[in-house]
Design a protein that fits this description.
The protein is an alpha/beta fold. Helix content is 32%, strand content 15%.
Length: 409
């Protein structure tokens, strides 16, 4: 599939009618560059880990600039496009020239996909038919709650009734994937039941439930924890049970992040396929594989089935959000001389090597695959075979990295 991505720019909190109460980008501090795989070897910090991770754009791009970007991209695509995805740091529904943009993209006669919207910019329900008529076929739409009062209070949606009316109309004609951050004591319990029922009746394709994060170890790496002081956070396992329960009682697909997709069995659906695991390469060397606390037990089970390897969890729950501070909690003496860190984590390679060689033993730090499995946001549009193929490729690459660089058993 040839996809054209249309980046509108925009800033969280500024170009979305204000931060939602639970937004990951609230209270972002003036943190130093984190370091990442894109940094130069001898400098910590690049555009991605100093500005991009905070989505510090200068604001929405003018439509003329967006059109120029589209034209430049089309010149690099000789065979036409199969899909157009609208994205940006701000909310597309709040884009000042939204109607003109949609008409422009609709004239390309390719299916349109809005990668994310809260709907807070939709004040007139009639915009739904306009979107349908111009080729919108899929949208990821934050609902939070089907109760307009809760949307108004926690999303700061000035016209929640209109936003929900637009969502409901879109559900009748196109693929709508809803999303909701679950705030304990706010939109869980009976309210979440009502939201699931509302979406089910409206015809939504799926609902992604996102566990609220309020602490650094849960993923707030931009100096902005807590988002809501005193607000409790559900445990990962309790959240998984909630997702499982709801998934069994409604016809739309319900999955959760960080855990899990009951329909597919992911993340790490491969654990339910012993025949497939037998086809993975055998682990013939030793290395220390560093990962997040959620993924660690699953990765250990897969690697143990193929010969075993040292899997080292840190306190950070999500592997791709591991920073240098997480590595400081490890005792280098407990690590192998080859250390594999998550491919997308926010750590500068040189700093990691220096830190983990602090006991006098020089350690080689390598990056593993970008992804070993699919979280709910990824698996929502996939089938089980797609996820299993991703996991086979990811674990094969990880094991090859271990065997090629680790200490031979």
């Amino acid at each position: 599939m040839v996809q054209l991505t249309v980046d509108l720019g925009g800033r969280p909190g500024a170009d979305c009618r204000g931060f939602c109460e639970y937004c990951y980008f609230r209270h972002v501090g003036d943190v130093a560059p984190l370091g990442c795989r894109y940094c130069p070897p001898f400098r910590v910090g690049c555009d991605y880990c100093s500005r991009g991770v905070k989505e510090q754009y200068s604001g929405f791009k003018p439509l003329s600039t967006v059109a120029d970007d589209i034209l430049a991209s089309l010149q690099m695509i000789p065979d036409g496009i199969d899909r157009v995805t609208i994205s940006g740091g701000g909310d597309p529904s709040c884009y000042p020239e939204f109607r003109d943009l949609i008409e422009l993209l609709g004239s390309m006669e390719a299916p349109l996909h809005i990668g994310y919207t809260s709907g807070k910019g939709f004040d007139d329900p009639a915009i739904a038919d306009f979107l349908i008529e111009n080729g919108l076929t899929e949208v990821s739409y934050t609902i939070f709650s089907a109760d307009p009062a809760l949307r108004r209070r926690y999303m700061h949606d000035p016209t929640p009734e209109a936003s929900l009316a637009v969502m409901k109309r879109l559900c009748e004609e196109i693929d709508v994937y809803a999303a909701a951050v679950v705030l304990p004591g706010v939109n869980d319990g009976a309210d979440l039941e009502q939201t699931c029922a509302w979406l089910d009746e409206a015809g939504a394709k799926g609902l992604i439930l996102m566990r609220f994060a309020n602490a650094t170890e849960q993923g707030l790496i931009l100096g902005n924890a807590p988002l809501i002081p005193g607000r409790q956070v559900e445990s990962v396992e309790a959240f998984r049970r909630r997702v499982t329960d709801l998934s069994g009682r409604y016809s739309l697909k319900i999955s959760g992040t960080p855990l899990w997709d009951p329909e597919i069995g992911s993340p790490f659906a491969i654990l339910g396929e012993p025949d497939l695991m037998e086809k993975l390469p055998a682990v013939r060397a030793q290395a220390s594989v560093i990962t997040g606390s959620v993924a660690a037990p699953y990765i250990r089970r897969v690697l143990d089935a193929r010969g075993g390897c040292d899997v080292v969890p840190v306190a950070k729950e999500i592997a791709c959000l591991i920073t240098l501070d997480d590595l400081k909690s490890l005792d280098p003496a407990d690590l192998e001389e080859t250390v594999i860190i998550p491919g997308r984590c926010f750590v500068h390679d040189r700093q990691a090597s220096e830190l983990l060689s602090g006991d006098g033993t020089i350690r080689t730090v390598l990056r593993g695959p970008d992804m070993l499995t699919a979280d709910a946001e990824t698996s929502m549009g996939m089938n089980r075979n797609d996820v299993l193929q991703m996991e086979m490729e990811g674990f094969s690459a990880l094991i090859h990295c271990i065997n090629q660089n680790g200490r031979k058993k």
